[in-house]
Each structure stands twice: as C-alpha cells, then as structure tokens.
Amino acid sequence: APGTETELLKRVPTFQADGRLGIFGKGSKSAGFYYGTQVRAITRPKGSDKTSELHLDRDVMHKRNAENADWQVSTIHERGQSEVARHKLRSSDELDCPPLLDLYARADSKP
What share of the chain is helix, strand, coil (3-state, %, to 5)? Predict the structure, then answer.
C-alpha cells in the first residue's frame, strides 16, 4: 500500500550495506544503544580538516522526555583534528580510557 514502509523501501535509495539502517538516518545510532547508554557518531568528509561529532545520551533523552522537552534535539559539534580539539568534546569516562582515545585519534588520521 502507498505510504507503507515496504513501499518506501522500494523508492528510497539506501546507503548502508544491509540496505535498511541508512534509510531513516537513525538505525545505526539506535543499534548503538544496544551496547550502552551513549553513542557518539564521528564523521569527516574526505579532504576536509573539520570533523563533525554527534553525542547521544539515553539518560539525557529520557530526562528531556520526562520534562516534556524535545528529547530528539542534539547538537552536532564541528572541530579540528588536534588532540586538544578532540579532548574538548570528551567526557571524563572517555578521557580515562586510553584505547578509546587511540581509536578516536586513528579515526581522525583516516582520509
């Protein structure tokens, strides 16, 4: 039937290997909450010196919802590639995890 998810899947181009997660733009982030209470999406266009980061926190989202605030609002931060720039957006838990910091640094070094 027109307007159903099945009909939409036939018309909308997909951008994920599984053909579903990228359609509505939330699947991969939602899947991340299966593993924990916070998700950080990091991306940098090829050739750019700026990285964009989105940090989602389930507890913050629940609190906003309980307060009848818009729980879907979040800020995308743009930053440079330096360690100082990366660390400004990190929580204390992240800063206490050297393997995670190394992963962030390696992600910045990729083209």
Answer: 40, 15, 45
pLDDT per position as a tens digit, 25-81 = 566 667 777 888 888 888 888 888 888 888 889 999 999 999 999 988 888 899 988
Residue identified by tokens 């994920």 is 16
The reported pLDDT for the residue numbered 59 is 92
Among the residues of the chain, which ranges form H helices? Answer: 5-11, 27-32, 58-66, 83-88, 92-95, 98-109
> Which of 22, 33, 27 has the alpha carbon at shortest distance from 62?
33
Query: What's the CA gap between 19 and 23, in Å, rounded?
Result: 8
pLDDT score at 56: 87
Phi and psi (nearest 5°) for 24? -100, 0
Side-chain-side CA neighbours of residue 47 (13 Å): 0
